[in-house]
Design a protein that fits this description.
By secondary structure, the protein is of the alpha+beta class. About 15% of the residues lie in helices and about 40% in strands. Strands 1, 3, 4, 5, 6, 7, 10 and 11 form an eight-stranded mixed β-sheet that branches. Strands 2, 12, 18, 19 and 24 form a five-stranded mixed β-sheet that branches. Strands 13, 14, 17, 21 and 22 form a five-stranded antiparallel β-sheet that branches. A hairpin with a 6-residue loop joins strand 21 and strand 22. About 25% of the residues are buried.
């Protein structure tokens, strides 16, 4: 309790009332005069209390920023093509295995960058995470917001010409580290026409390749053994492994860099490779090797290997011909056209006319 306030009130009452009750004049005049002073004093106390109340109200508690959670639905356009599932390399991601993706958005002159991405996660079939821009929701809920969704890579905006959203993405050289890239875009959404409900249909932005190998019939008289050298038996060289996937181009498309890489297709051993059926090249943890869509131009089998080619570490011998044997690297020119969203079974038929060696910078057929 405020004792100073009590003593002050008491002294004021004494100074206003007690002297008047002991002064001269009629009792009525004294009572009227002193009650007037009492009322004036009480009014002063009320004004003092009101001022104190106003000052208290000026101290505001910080208010949490309002959030407007998104409601997410997800579907997928599956990979198409002749590839079949098996048990090696990286696996194609589908709705049953998709666990996380990321969102960026654009409206008016606002372009959210890679540092502003929102993470969306799947928990028991329910997607959660992400918020509608609060300034749009509160300021103008009829503003169109464009949403960009992706499963990997770095989101950014082009610097030249009209701003275009893109994903900077690289395919890892190691098969066990490779990831499928899924992308989606939603336009024409305002808070008033969707209340934060977004439905994404994902497309596969890469191509998926499954490799199979056999010996051609024109090598039936030959024994073809494949074994590792420095840990590698079969490898594909000179494939563009990095690019930018542009969401806003018509249709969405890739811009390739000059970065190229090689991809190990097999690290095991084939003793006397079969010619009657293709054998799948097992490597890694799922059936496919992912590649950025591109046209692979083959080595022209002159000089040192360039462009795209397959390298084998092999030994070749011919029954009944002790004068012929070869052991070392063999090169096979390789060309293929890869389109996004497609899966391919790449069948490598190793024959006389495809096996080259390079000696002193000169290329020639191993088996003339």
């Amino acid at each position: 309790m405020n004792t100073n306030f009590k003593s002050t009130s008491k002294s004021c009452l004494q100074s206003y009332i007690l002297p008047s009750l002991t002064g001269r004049g009629s009792l009525l005049e004294s009572v009227a005069l002193h009650w007037g002073r009492v009322c004036f004093f009480l009014l002063s106390l009320l004004l003092f209390a009101a001022c104190s109340s106003d000052n208290d109200e000026q101290v505001q508690q910080p208010q949490p920023e309002k959030s407007y959670p998104l409601t997410i639905e997800v579907t997928e356009n599956p990979m198409t093509g002749d590839g079949e599932n098996s048990s090696n390399r990286a696996a194609i991601t589908d709705i049953s295995t998709l666990e996380t993706f990321y969102l960026n958005y654009q409206y008016n002159s606002v372009y959210s960058g890679s540092g502003d991405k929102q993470s969306i996660t799947n928990t028991s079939g329910t997607w959660s995470g992400g918020n509608w821009p609060s300034d749009v929701r509160e300021g103008n809920p009829d503003v169109n917001v464009t949403w960009y969704a992706y499963t990997d890579g770095t989101f950014n905006w082009s610097d030249e010409g009209p701003k275009e959203a893109y994903i900077n993405f690289a395919v890892e050289e190691s098969a066990t580290l490779q990831k499928d890239l899924l992308v989606a875009k939603v336009t024409g959404k305002t808070w008033n026409n969707c209340s934060g409900h977004l439905s994404f249909t994902f497309d596969h932005a890469c191509a998926a390749l499954r490799f199979l190998v056999k010996k051609a019939k024109n090598l039936n008289d030959y024994t073809l053994n494949i074994s590792p050298s420095a840990g590698i038996s079969i490898k594909l060289f000179n494939v563009v492994n990095q690019g930018k996937y542009y969401f806003d181009k018509t249709p969405p498309s890739w811009g390739l860099t000059d970065n190229r890489s090689g991809y190990t297709l097999y690290t095991g051993t084939f003793e006397d490779l079969r010619s009657d059926a293709y054998t799948e090249l097992s490597q890694g943890t799922g059936p496919y090797l992912f590649m950025i869509p591109q046209k692979l131009d083959p080595w022209n089998h002159t000089g040192e290997p360039t462009n795209t080619y397959i390298e084998l570490n092999c030994s070749i011998s011919k029954g009944g011909d002790p004068g012929f044997s070869y052991s070392g690297k063999a090169y096979i020119p390789f060309d293929y056209t890869l389109e996004k969203g497609n899966k391919y079974d790449v069948k490598i038929n190793i024959g006389k006319n495809s096996l080259y060696k390079v000696v002193g910078g000169t290329a020639s057929l191993i088996i003339p």
